[in-house]
Amino acid sequence: MPPFTHRYRDLKRFHLPPLVLLAGAVLGFPAETPARPSTGAFSSFDDPAAPKTPLDYFNLIREHKDRTPRNRIEELGQMKTEDALSMLKRSVDEMEGRWGKQYVFSAMRFFMDDPELAPVAIKFAEGAALRRNPTEARAAAGAMVGWGEPAREVLYGVAADGWDEGARAEAIRGIHDLLKERKDGVALRIMLEAFDVPTSGPATLGVEVLGLFRSEEFFREIRKFVGDRSAPIQRLLVVLDAMGTHAAGVDPVVDEGVNDVLEEGLRHRDPVVQYRALLAVARRGGTKAPREVTKLTKSKDESVKRAAIIAALRTQTRDPSGAGGKGGRRIDPLELVESDESAVRQAAAIGLGDRGDEEALGALHRLLRDEDWRVRAEAIRAVIRVRDRSSIPELIEGLDRAEGRFVGDFHAGLVQLTALDLGLAAGRWRIFWEKESETFEVPSPKVVAKAAADRAKRKEDSESAVAFYGINVLSDAFVLVVDTSGSMNAKVGKEKKQTRLDVAKEQMAKTLNRVRDGVLFNVIPFSGNARPLTDGLEPMDEEAREEALAFIEVLREAGGTNIFDSLSAAFEDERVDTIYLLSDGAPSAGEFVDVMSLRAEVERWNSTRGILIHAIAVGQDHPLLRGLAADSGGRYVRVE
């Protein structure tokens, strides 16, 4: 995980004056790199009277270049004359930046319904897209995506044979349907050589398209790509995810081809790639895991080791004769319970949950008392999946012992197995179980969900509890990760006097004022980068509270939305067990901005950490936040 870029506490070490400290907290250091400009990216100037002729428009563009208002460029295109097209072609060279050029190319779309001029415009843009000038090539390809049907074949050619990788990736955005229709060698080459997330489309699209290639020849090419150690990691991950969509046992050719591809992924040096290949093995089913799975059960990377054990356990469960492919040794989850490695015991909990028999449940119940909280968290999730009444008294005893966030975890387990909410005190649950244990039947998840919805209508969370946006703060080691991007300046409420960030600051202050001394905490505001209050968690006391409140008070809205780096910063401290993540928009900065890719990477980090991620979506539903909460067992709420 990348290191975060700036900590508020770091500034204090240099004994900077208060005003400089406040500026650092407001602005963030270092300065953020500007994101892609909007359609209004040109800086304003006194707009002259409207030009009359194509030459007038060209002279305007030549004078002001990239500062030319876009509406003037559009007006030139809307003239739809041969002279207008000629002036647009000349205007491309007058623009200096990518977006100025792209706006000019985009204005050529008005000629697409002209049988004589459309081919001229398309040929000109095609030449630019194939040129060895990245700025112009990407501008042309990006603009042609908006030209519709007339430009599709040209875009297909650019995606297949363009010189610039960025232009090829842009071109793919306009040919999604063609790639799905053709499913030929050229289409596969385009996907393997040029598909870029998110420029070409979301990772889900890449998975869908790559899942269509099912011949022996295609699998050979895919295997060769995965075996190329210089292949881009994000593209590799999309390929491996696509392999996981092929159900095992349906087609022998597909089975052999997928296993060959996954073997290459499992042999990759990067644990991120190994982990994703292991997920594909476990997801697709079947009775034989690739032989590399057994080797990875000894990996030094905890997330890989855990995933390898789970993959081996699940394949051997489907095939009692053995596991791990040829030479694989059958793994007994009951033996794994005794391991001195946390990641192995976590995997054991999952394997025991998959078995769900009486012996497995007995071992799972022992893991509810494990010394490592991450193992306890996995065991709670496993007994919830099994849904056996014998787990209820074990969860009650766990609730009685629990501290910090595990009060909430054991309580949640009891709610899931009973559809009741008798509070956080074990005594009431014991009384209930003494009365009902002999005849009680565990309700279905559907009944549990309905009961929870009914309770929510009758009663909000207690106002006396420490909470953040209504989500109780039970943890003794938590982080508030809060979006401060430019969009957080949107006005909210009936009177529209406060911004989204104003409300968030009030919520943070309310939470921190009520957290008891000794609790470990941190605050990580983020926009284009992450700007933690401190280097890791620090214990709450009066001085820490005052410093945190002062830090929060001067936060301002600016920049993009870098959810990846902010979560990376939150994960850096091994003591963290709960994260509260608030954001109002999709990720726009950081190593991962595609929703599927970012969610998968965080799931990998968290596979051995067991951190609860509670998510607060501001303004609208947020699929990424919803997914992060669901993956970790946290709560998801949407607020205005």
TrEMBL record:
Domain VWFA: start-end pairs: 477-640
Transmembrane parts of this sequence: none
Highest taxon above the source species: Bacteria
Gene3D superfamilies in UniProt: Leucine-rich Repeat Variant (1.25.10.10), von Willebrand factor, type A domain (3.40.50.410)
Ranges in coiled-coil conformation: none
Protein known as: von Willebrand factor type A domain protein
